[in-house]
Design goal:
Helices cover 46% and strands 2% of the residues. It is mainly α. The chain has a domain at 40-180: Orthogonal Bundle (Endonuclease III, domain 1), CATH 1.10.340. Helix 2 (44-57) runs antiparallel to helix 7 and helix 9 (153-164) packs across helix 10 (172-181). One of its GO terms (biological process) is base-excision repair.
């Protein structure tokens, strides 16, 4: 999830469109907000990538991850689970020397472990069905950034369930950010031109 701005309402940008404050100032964030953030992700590779990047984002700003996303994709074999699961000590050394990504050993090892867990989860229906089974029955309707939750009962439950399946770096806050990014909840502020754009939730 992109870093949260101060407790503010939606912002009218210079192109006349209304957006959540975090998407108003940076061109790359604006493009991401307008085209990707909050849209449903229902393919395994895509969801594994989002899961990995949200894990790397923990403790950092989302724009840092977004600027490095192409490098992450190159370094992690486009986040194909089978490829990442085969990474060995030489790959870890390679990744730790790659200035294009976040060189955090624990997060790198977690991504490799989570790739193996993703493959194992196929025996139970797969990562996509597993994660989407925690979609809540309703979504927040925030008027300001301060009204956007950082966790939910569902993100706490999902975090626990994923840990039980062998995943790591999947805390409740990270899982809520994943839910926001992949359309499981809609936390576009009321008035934003993107609210309701996912087709999962109504506009209001």
């Amino acid at each position: 999830m992109p870093a949260r701005a101060e407790a503010a309402g939606p912002v009218t940008c210079d192109d006349g469109l209304v957006r959540t404050p975090w998407a108003a100032s940076d061109a790359l964030l604006r493009e991401y907000y307008d085209t990707e953030w909050g849209m449903p992700v229902r393919d395994e590779r895509g969801l594994f990538e989002r899961l990995a990047l949200e894990s790397f984002q923990s403790g950092l700003s989302w724009i840092t991850i977004l600027r490095k996303r192409d490098a992450f994709r190159a370094a992690f074999s486009n986040f194909v689970p089978e490829a990442v699961a085969e990474f060995d000590d030489d790959d870890v050394t390679r990744l730790l020397a790659d200035p294009g990504i976040i060189r955090n050993r624990a997060k790198i090892l977690a991504t490799i472990k989570n790739a193996s867990a993703t493959i194992a989860l196929r025996l139970e229906g797969g990562l996509v069905d597993f994660i989407w089974s925690y979609q809540p029955k309703k979504t927040p309707i925030p008027m300001t950034v301060a009204e956007v939750p950082t966790t939910s009962d569902e993100s706490i439950a999902l975090s626990k369930a994923l840990r039980e399946k062998g995943f790591t770096f999947v805390g409740p806050t990270t899982m809520y950010a994943l839910m926001e990014a992949t359309g499981m909840v809609d936390t576009h502020l009321v008035g934003s031109h993107r609210r309701g754009s996912s087709g999962v939730w109504p506009r209001d």
